[in-house]
Structures are given as C-alpha cells and as structure tokens.
Amino acid sequence: MGKKDASANRSQPLEQYRKQIGKQDWKKSKKEIRSMKSRSEYSNEYTPQVIVLWIGAIILVCSSGYMLLFWYLGAASLENLSDPPPV
DSSP assignment, residue 9? Predict the structure, then answer.
C-alpha cells in the first residue's frame, strides 16, 4: 500500500498540468466558436426584408432622379411651347 500512495502523490502535479492545458484549450475553442458564430451572423445579414428594403431604396432614388430630370427638362420645353410660333 505504501507504493500506491507514493505513486499517487507524484502524478498529481502532472494531472493538474494536463487539466490546466485542457481548460486553456477549452477557452480557445470557445473563442473560436464565438468568432465562427459572429462570422455566420455577418454572412446571414441579407434577409429578405433587407433585400426588399435595398431594392425599394434604389427604386426611390432612381424615380426621384427621373422626376427631377423630367421637371427641369420639361419646364424648358414647355416654355418653348407657350410662345406662339411665328407665322
């Protein structure tokens, strides 16, 4: 029985060292898991609602640009039409 107790005391620091390494690896893997989750959330950012919102914004900008051009160019052409043509 004396040998059994003596061998248990000698291997205890080694087991503690292994446990510490295991804890550090677990902490690293947790960080990696968090980073992978954040990357996947970033890549899944394009939901249908966001896509519809972007398309609506693009349509709004294009239509407002068209209306401004129509207004400016239409006003110039209407001025020319309001003058009676020379006979």
Answer: H
The secondary structure of 50-82 as a DSSP string is HHHHHHHHHHHHHHHHHHHHHHHHHHHHHHHHH
DSSP letter string, 21-52: HHHHHHHHHHHHHHHHHHHHHHHTT--HHHHH
pTM over 0.85: no
CA-to-CA distance for 71 and 65, rounded, in angstroms? 10
Tokens 């898991």 label which residue? 33
Mean pLDDT per 10-residue segment, the chain (87 residues): 56 82 74 80 77 96 95 73 61
Q: Cα(37)–Cα(43) distance, rounded to whole angstroms?
A: 10
* 35/63 Cα distance (integer angstroms): 41
